[in-house]
Amino acid sequence: xxxxxxxxxxxxxxxxxxxxxxxxxxxxxxxxxxxxxxxxxxxxxxxxxxxxxxxxxxxxxxxxxxxxxxxxxxxxxxxxxxxxxxxxxxxxxxxxxxxxxxxxxxxxxxxxxxxxxxxxxxxxxxxxxxxxxxxxxxxxxxxxxxxxxxxxxxxxxxxxxxxxxxxxxxxxxxxxxxxxxxxxxxxxxxxxxxxxxx
Length: 198
Known about the structure:
The N terminus is likely disordered. By secondary structure, the protein is mainly α. A hairpin with a 2-residue loop joins strand 1 and strand 2. 60% of the residues lie in helices and 8% in strands. It has seven helices and two strands. The chain has a two-stranded antiparallel ribbon. The N and C termini lie far apart (105 Å). Among the domains are: 39 residues, no CATH class; 95 residues, RNA polymerase sigma factor, region 2, helix turn helix motif (Rna Polymerase Sigma Factor, Chain: A, Orthogonal Bundle), CATH 1.10.1740.10.
C-alpha cells in the first residue's frame, strides 16, 4: 500500500491510498477512492447494524430473550456510560446509571414503538433522563444536609489512650477478683450489678 498525490494546491497535497481496497469489505461507489479513515477504521468482521436489526433486538428483549439484552448491552453500553460519566463526572455513578438504563430497557422493551424513533435514540433518552434525575436527587440531598439538619454519622471512635486505660482497669479488676473467694466475689458482683449488699 502506498500513497500517491492526486493534486497539490498551495503546498497542500491531496492523497489517495493505493492498495487500500484489500483492507475493507465495504462496497465503494464507482470512482470512490478509499480515504485514510476507510483504511484505519475499517472493520471487516463488523458491519454497521441496520435500524431493523436494532428493532429486532428490542422486540426479542420484549419477549424475554436475555441473550438479546446481552447483545444490545454489548453494542450500546459504552455510549450510555459515556453520557452518564460526562454528565455526572463519576465513574461509579455512571456504572450504576448504565445498569439502571438497561434494566429499564428490559422492562420497557415490549412497549417500544419503532415509529417513535430509532432504538439508540430511545436508549439514550432514557440514559439522559435517568442521569438528570440522579443529579437532581443528589442536589436535593446536599441541600437537605446543609439546611441545618445533622447528617447521620457513625459513632465517633474512642481515643486510643482511653481504650488502653479502660483495658488496663479491666485487667486489674479481674486480677483482684481472682484473689477473692467465691462467696466474696459473688457478694461484690451482686452489689455491683444489682445495687444491693448481701
